[in-house]
Amino acid sequence: MPSPGRAELDAAGIHDPAVRASYAACRALNARHGRTYFLATRLLPAARRPAVHALYGFARYADEIVDDVHSGLSPAAQAARLDALDAELTRALRGAPTTSPVLAALADTTRRYAIDHRYFADFLTSMRMDTEITDYPSMAELERYMHGSAAVIGLQMVPILGTIGPRSAAEPHAAALGVAFQLTNFLRDVGEDMDRGRVYLPADVLAAFGVDRARLLWCRDNRRADGRVRRALAQLVADTRRVYRRAEPGLDLLDPAARPCVRCAFILYRDILTEIEAADYDVLHRRVSVPLSRRLAIAATLLRPLDRGRHRTRQP
Fold first, then answer.
1. How many Cβ atoms are within 10 Å of 277's Cβ, its own excluded?
2. End-to-end CA gap in the chain
3. Rounded to the nearest 10 degrees, what angle do helices 152-161 and 118-129 cross at?
């Protein structure tokens, strides 16, 4: 019996050994780093999973350039690496060979699903912002960053997931879901991001509750949140829940075969907000997570209708 990775590539009609190896490298990145994302991807039809792994692999690869605190790279060196990645990506998308497994898989996925190349340019623009900007004075400024770092991720996914009607109807919801996921990450990872010198919580929202960077640092250093920080984080959690509500109608616009995957990710990422609330917003010195038992239970619940459908399909 072939391994899950090989079976997915077979189902997708990917036969070239070098291209298969490139997709396998992206799948390994997703399995290692994207716990919830990888679990949700397993609910997609096998033929579509390699493309999702390729998108994740590229995003992770670029993220590591700006987020690896152990690399010792200066912001200028990070920007130079992003420029080099951008140039190599442009060549790969034009059909030139590449030695990067991640870019080889991404270029193949982009051709197969006709994904707009501008989405990758917008993504790299936001990654460059991480080499220059350490604070966001307002939600409007943060939204400019999240267009490239999150909204376009949702837009990249739409051709792979498929829709029951015009893509244009589903795209605003997909973009909103990408933003909701990233806002959730910002709240979960606020302490880790501060270790990288960045604060992705809008300063105007924090200031409304008497919170600034110095207050956040004090809470991180003292391993506890105070009342002002808790109230500010509660407001940001509430704001993020509103983004999820804006995204949710888009689930029913997707191809039915893709809905369990996206609904799984939707539920489990939104559950991170519940875990933040349960921790009384004490998240500056630790990362909360959805328990494995909860993740597996949600995936199993969403998988059961798929299994019944596959069983009926196999009946004579």
1. 14
2. 23
3. 150
**Structure pTM?**
0.93
How far are the Cα atoms of 8, 24, 85, 100, 112 from residue 20, in angstroms, in the given order? 10, 6, 21, 13, 14
Distance CA 170, CA 208 (A): 34
**Which has more confidence, 73 or 84?**
84
Q: Is the pLDDT of residue 239 over 60?
A: yes
Which is nearest to 44 in space by CA: 2, 12, 83, 77? 12
Structure tokens at 196: 């990288």
Structure tokens at 88: 């190599």
Separation between Cα atoms, residue 22 and residue 45, nearest integer Å: 20
Query: 30 and 57 in contact (C-beta within 8 Å)?
Result: yes
Residues 124, 126, 130: CA angle, nearest 5 degrees: 110
